[in-house]
Specification:
0% strand, globular
């Protein structure tokens, strides 16, 4: 596989993050509502920051040189937003989401993290060793 070419799986994952991040800006209210009260930022600031982080991470997956950094960036983001998902699940009626959906999405988080881990390689499916500096 050409290292410059983006696999369909990586393209799909990048699209998911870019679209989700864009939604944080286009329709922020649902995201604002699930920001736990103990988060040190205001809900709108947290929503916009996480949306920007999703967009940047998704874009980072699209180029082999930035994939490894995007991997760590998105893994950190997924860990950071997990408490909001737990917060929503604990009081799903308040967020007008079915309890089954709210709790059912929690186990999907590790699967998404696994997909990010795999997509974050420079060239999916093969190891790309570092190139020594030529003098």
């Amino acid at each position: 596989m050409n290292a410059r070419r983006v696999s369909p799986a990586v393209l799909l994952l990048a699209t998911v993050f870019i679209v989700a991040g864009t939604l944080h800006f286009l329709a922020p209210k649902p995201f604002d509502r699930i920001v736990p009260p103990w988060v040190p930022l205001g809900p709108r600031a947290a929503t916009l920051l996480s949306g920007a982080a999703e967009i940047l991470g998704g874009l980072g997956l699209l180029h082999p040189a930035t994939r490894p950094a995007a991997r760590w960036w998105l893994l950190a983001l997924l860990i950071a937003v997990f408490p909001a998902n737990v917060y929503m699940a604990q009081d799903s009626d308040r967020f007008q989401v079915s309890s089954a959906v709210a709790w059912g999405r929690l186990p999907l988080q590790p699967l998404l993290m696994w997909a990010v881990w795999r997509a974050g390689r420079r060239s999916p499916g093969q190891y790309t060793p570092p190139v020594p500096n030529a003098r």
